[in-house]
Design goal:
single chain, 8-stranded antiparallel β-sheet
Length: 167
Amino acid sequence: MPVFIYPNLLKTIPINRRECNDSGMSQFSVFESTVLIHLPVHRVWELLTDWAAAPLWIHGIGSMHSDDPELKVGTNLVYRVAGHERAYRVHDLIENRLLIMHTSENPDGLSYRYDLKDDAGYTEVVLQVAIINPDLSVEQCEELAANVRESEGDKLDQLRLYAEQAP
């Protein structure tokens, strides 16, 4: 069975299950995907964190910007989707290796974890998505997870296509 591994939280979370991590945060796993991008890690990190370019590879995003020029834990990333303003909040990061962002528009938000790893000069990117602090039933979590998988399941493929064509 695939698993989410959160080393900084010392907890493994099985896919499609609801469990609590060591900080007491309940999570319901949505999906995990992996892609190999034929660029070095530092370049993939630059493109992943180029917020103005996010609409070029994230479906539905009209614009995105940071509320702080320095990327750090707590930074808000404001984006527009379907005419509405939304935000991600940087929850954890290790430059060129790890970026965890949480949506912040409601208590049943989403967590996006990007892990970057060097693979002989190329970059392996793993994306793990989970529903955090769900006040939803398991059935409601499963329905939301299915919607997220349908709308965002190809997110890493889109990043790879964008990154390998970027100037």
